[in-house]
Amino acid sequence: MRNIPVDISALTFVCVSAPRPRVLDQETGEVKVDRNGQTMFTVGLSAANPMGRVELLNVSVTGDQDVTIGQIVSPVGLVAFPWEQIRNGEKRWGIAYRADRIVLAGPAGGPASQASAGAA
Fold first, then answer.
1. Model pTM?
2. How far apart are CA 34 and CA 38, in angstroms?
């Protein structure tokens, strides 16, 4: 499988879906784990470029990430990789994303938190 590094320098990422365990089997509830047995999580991010184009990405990471919806974040070590599978006789394909971790890119809570902190 070929991993393609993603240059995030010109992109702004916002968390749009809180981290949730990545489920392998909906019927059994089995969750995906990495080679070390740690639970894999999926975090929904919007990625906006300077021209205003926005893409939605589901990014896989190992372990729960300390981010919430609405926070500006940075996916550290973001890579993309193509995938394809045949399910029920239909060929499906796409691009999946994985990161080492997801960290806050700016002050937690945004401008409202800074204003209330300054008033204290």
1. 0.80
2. 5
Q: What is the pLDDT of residues 70-110, one digit of tens each?
A: 999 999 999 999 989 888 899 999 999 999 999 998 654 44
Compute, in degrees rounded to 10, the torsion defined by CA atoms 50, 54, 60, 62: 40
Among 74, 70, 68, smallest CA distance to 100 is for 74
pLDDT at 111: 45
Is residue 48 within 8 Å of residue 24, measured between CB atoms? Answer: no
* Long-range Cβ contact pairs of 53-62 (< 8 A, separation 24 or more): 56/16, 57/97, 58/17, 58/96, 58/97, 59/97, 59/98, 59/99, 59/102, 60/22, 60/96, 60/97, 60/98, 60/99, 61/19, 61/98, 61/99, 61/100, 61/101, 61/102, 62/34, 62/36, 62/38, 62/100
